[in-house]
Specification:
Number of helices: 15
Order of helices and strands: HHHHHHHHEEHHEEEHEHEEEHEEEHH
Number of strands: 12
Oligomer: single chain
Mean pLDDT: 83
Largest sheet: 3 strands, antiparallel
Structural class: mainly alpha
Low-confidence stretches: none
Length: 479
Amino acid sequence: MFRHEWADDELSGLLVSHNRNEVLIAEICTPERVRDVEDHLAIIGPRMGVSRARARDYCYIGLMFRRMPTLHRQARDRGHLPFRHLASIAVGTVAVDDEHIGDVEKDLLDYLAPSKDGLALPGIRSFNREICRIVDEHDPLARPIDEDDPAEERAARESVVIETDTANGLGHLNATLDKDRMAEFQELLAAERNRRIDLEGKCTWADALMGMARGEANPRIVMNVYRDINGGRAYLDGAGWLSDFATEEWTRRCTHARLSGDSRVNGYVPSAAQQARVRGRDGFCRFPGCDVPARKCDIDHIQPYDHDNPGAGGPTDSRNLHCLCRRHHNLKTSRLWDVVKLADDTEIWSSRTTGDAHVSVPQGPLAGCGRQTFDEAITRTTATLHEHNAKRMQREAEQAEADRMAAESFVRAREARERRDRDFREANVRRRNRMHAAELRDYQDANADWFDAQAEGWPTTHRDPEPPKRRLPHPDIPF
């Protein structure tokens, strides 16, 4: 169960009771689908003393419960889902059709089944990303607008608004970009600001922006794009999972490829490969429940690095590094919290003040990469062997079929050749027989007197003529 479900914690117990009450409120607020929206909200809103938007969310949650009875039952019995998480599920799945809602519910239940006892509930941002991923997998047409769409639709979604006619002497710049393009813009702007700080000692964000607008800078940045070697959707640090179109766009732009793996370096500063590995593994700040993206986090040594005696402290090894936002990095540095990392990258955080313990697991695209249980190893080996043997058997079957066809072709060719040879020999024999019969008649006509005398018994002095020899084909020559 999640950490906030522990029954012996009074504060957690109050929160669970509150969550159960939220479920009951949503049940009471659930309208019939044919009910007028504004009329229903106008009735229940004043009764609860909440805003129209809050009342509407209760209605959507109730309607969602009707379509996901198992999730409804767990939320009512366990009380593990706060209002914001329930509202995210309701809004994120509202467009899923009845054919796919069962599969979406199953994946959501799997996601909400903590892999470790005491695991902190995912933050709302990472929770929303997972909802988007699940819906997109089963019913892409119902995917929330949070995802990227093809480039031809960007013009209708992206915008840049500049306003200079203001009373306070300041102008306003409002830019709306796809999240991957905004992440790239932020990196470019930060790189230009850092460059000017190194040269001039100071630089505001506005000065960096104007420098880029004037063309005074050409900053170079590195954006890490994570993608399985076998393909699939990509993950951009700072933007999350990308659509198929954005995946192909960023893949085409990649200038270097790296096979990620754990490594160790000398010194305090992690290498670029280690930073990419750690951010890709963690995804977010590793403090339980924190959802600050890894791109905005510091890379921290879990076992502190000893600058005076590096051999005595924690190594700069990707397995001894994790992502922490500045707030939780300071908590750890102040020794208010201790953290222990397990072999499967699970982290157990404990408060030195109260002794409370919380658990967090990595949520990035590289989470679990390179580590596996015996069951996972056996399953993976089995799948690999099945795939290998299936391909081998297919190759053998194809080769056997090719051999059979070649043998049949050879037999047909041999029979055709033998038939041609036999016909040729028979034709040659017939031709030679006709020639021999004609020669024999000529011989008999030329020696008719001799044959007659011999037939009557008279002696002759004529030498016995030799009849012509029959010409037959040589047995070793086929013609």
